[in-house]
Write the structure tokens for this entry.
Amino acid sequence: MHKIIRAVLLVLCLCGVTTIAQAAQCKVRGTDIASGKPYEGRVSTNVIGKIIKVEWDMPGGVHYSGSGIIDGDAVAIYFKPGYNAVALYRIERGTGVFHGTWTALSSDDIAIEDWIPLK
């Protein structure tokens, strides 16, 4: 039931119907842009209207903060420290999974990252 409520609220926010603040926790999986190695961690999001605030908590106490814009099923985020980076995600309707790619100012590569909502 909670998953359905979160999905409905997210759709309402994405469609500009409401400015309800919504917080969510996600498991994050991706590929490190420097090493190409896989990583996992946690992402906390707070959506207010079409603005998204993001906090990444990774193994070893590594932490990143970001802010972005939601436009339909697309989400663009700038984040730092460590990397001055940008990410572009597509939200999978129905599941709320974010599928994304990202790059850093110091890199000529693109890496992948997915967020899977926690129940």
Notes: The chain has a mean pLDDT of 85. The helical segments are 2-14. Strands lie at 21-31, 38-48, 51-58, 62-71, 74-80, 85-91, 98-104, 111-117. The chain has one helix and eight strands.
